[in-house]
Amino acid sequence: MAVFSRGFGGRARESAPDLPPGQFLTEDFPVLSAGPTPEIYTAEWSFSIRTETGAQHTWDWEQFRALPSELVSTDIHCVTRWSKLGTSWRGVSLDTLFEEVESSYDYVMAHSYGGYTTNLPLEDLLDGKAWIAYEFDGEDLDPEHGGPARLLVPHLYFWKSAKWVRGLVMMKDDEPGFWEQNGYHTYGDPWQEQRYW
Ligand SMILES: Nc1nc2c(c(=O)[nH]1)N[C@H]1C(S)=C(S)[C@@H](COP(=O)(O)O)O[C@H]1N2
Ligand SMILES: [Mo]
Question: What Gene3D superfamilies does the entry give (predicted)?
Fold first, then answer.
């Protein structure tokens, strides 16, 4: 069998069982943004979850940072074929944030400062699968990587991990976000190679 290596100085899949099909390892941390990095001051930052009743649960930075946080060590997989293994983050579990939220809807649209959106099933945000992350490698999250805080949903392609996230809106039906309207798969499971539709 041919041993191949391509892009990002990566190693081929054979040497890394943690690598989903078609992905290549990278040691650095590429920045992928559809627009400019927004300037967000934590004094003006807030995160909210809005439900079908119009109820809005909002946390300012102080309230958010007072919530229990978790250290998360995880692999991340970008649809442009780079993967990074064993990344380390700190964030607040979506389980913690949803403790206060009552909704019968099954889907979520994540909204970011700057206008980016991405859609997810609610169940992919719960049960220890997703965080609002504010540290990477023990440091405040860089603005380029979504600081002060971003969504982290590592079991799906990384476009689902909305940088500069400012809120979630509950949806009755699945509706496409920014990349999903532009050809990316509605769900985006890297192990199924759900890249595009
Ligand atoms: N707000 C916002 N979030 C975003 C994006 C974006 O353009 N804007 N790009 C997505 C894509 S396609 C990827 S691969 C990751 C990249 O995150 P990184 O720049 O920290 O590597 O962020 C995702 N979240
Ligand atoms: Mo991406």
Answer: Oxidoreductase, molybdopterin-binding domain
Average pLDDT over residues 14-40: 92
How close is the Cα of 2 to the center of ligand 1, in Å? 33
Q: Is 170 in the pocket of ligand 1 (CB under 6 A)?
A: no
Predicted TM-score (pTM) of the model is 0.94
CA of 32 to the centre of ligand 1 (A): 5
Structural domain boundaries of the chain? Answer: 24-31+44-192
> Per-residue pLDDT tens for 81-99?
999 999 999 999 999 999 9
CATH (residue range 24-31+44-192):
3.90.420.10
